[in-house]
Write a structure and sequence with these properties.
Blueprint lengths: L11 E5 L5 E5 L5 E4 L2 E4 H4 L7 E3 L5 E6 L2 H7 L9 H10 L7 E5 L5 H10 L4 E6 L2 H15 L6 E5 L14 E6 L8 H7 E11 L2 H14 L6 E3 L6 E2 L6 E2 L9 E6 L17
Parallel strand pairs: 7-8, 7-10, 8-9, 10-11
Antiparallel strand pairs: 1-2, 1-6, 3-4, 5-6, 11-15, 12-15, 13-14
Bound molecules: S-adenosylmethionine (SAM).
Length: 278
């Protein structure tokens, strides 16, 4: 699929009308987009620049842009809840997902994180995504295939329980492990066994009891750095003259992020120094 340049067959295009309503179509030569505001021929759009306006048979204008990955993630069919873009951004940067990285992910869920990881690891990387539920894996595969216009060679989606996975199953150690599941602490022994020394482990948990469990689990294994925990809060602003102010509504809580790095084998983690109580 193309990320930029004039529209081509196969592109996923978002049409926005005067009321800021969005409609999405896959460009097919000879195809037609029908709405109560008239018909737009796909051939009118093919060859136009992004950011152009197309007019329907009934004289209505639609603004045209390619679907961004974030649009795809928020509008695609879901089997499981997706990781929100604000948290994905944290995972990609804090988790240091680099071009060429070998990344292990579980569960694949609806494939939202998978597609972001795939784009970040690039053509020389690898993303192995485990999913325990067949129906969720099907959603993930359909969503990833639709976004990329086919199955990326760099993606290896697998049906299975991550708890049973060995380093041999993965064809060797991985650089990064990202878990988004209800009980990630059950998979910590696998994370220990498959993560390369210095590798980054991140997980995403929604509740405080989960956060406490995973932090304790990481500490107990004694093969990781002291874990960090945080959350990301994003608040939109309305910017209109004297009415400029933060929006009233926000997604105040999605989940907590946890990060730890794998120590080399046999290394005892330095004890974190805490301030003495008065
Ligand atoms: C919240 S969803 C993941 C969503 C995904 N990160 C996304 O952005 O689309 C959690 C998934 O983990 C799967 N899961 C839970 N435990 C698992 C395990 N031990 N191994 C593999 N998958 C697991 C669940 O079936 C579920 O689909």
């Amino acid at each position: 699929m193309a990320y930029s340049g004039p529209f081509q067959p196969g592109d996923r295009v978002q049409l926005t009308d005067a009321k800021r309503r969005h409609f999405t179509l896959n460009l097919v030569p000879g195809g037609k987009f029908h709405s109560h505001k008239g018909i737009v021929e796909h051939d009118q759009i093919i060859g136009m620049d992004e950011g152009s306006v197309v007019t329907s048979t009934m004289g209505s204008d639609f603004l045209l842009f390619r679907h961004l990955m974030v649009d795809h993630v928020l509008s695609m069919p879901r089997g499981a809840a997706v990781i929100y873009p604000k948290d994905t951004a944290q995972i990609l940067v804090e988790g240091d997902i680099f071009p060429g990285a070998r990344v292990l992910e579980a569960g694949a869920g609806s494939g939202a994180l998978s597609m972001n990881l795939l784009r970040a690891v690039g053509e020389k990387g690898k993303v192995i995504s485990y999913e325990i539920r067949e129906d969720h894996l099907e959603y993930a595969q359909a969503n990833v295939d639709e976004y990329f216009g086919g199955r990326p060679d760099t993606w290896d989606p697998r049906l299975g329980d991550l708890k049973d996975v060995t380093v041999d199953d993965l064809g060797g150690p991985v650089d990064r492990v990202i878990l988004d599941m209800v009980e990630p602490w059950d998979c910590l022994p696998v994370v220990r066994d498959v993560l390369i020394p210095g590798g980054v482990f991140m997980t995403y948990v929604a509740t405080v009891p989960q956060l406490m469990n995973i932090m304790e689990g990481i500490r107990e294994l004694q093969c990781f750095t002291e874990p960090r925990a945080w959350e990301s809060l994003v608040r939109e602003w309305k910017v209109e003259g004297l009415a400029t102010r933060p929006e009233h509504r926000m997604n105040a809580h999605t989940a907590f992020l946890v990060l730890a790095r794998r120590l080399a084998d046999g290394v005892t983690p330095p004890r974190p120094q805490r301030r003495a109580r008065r």
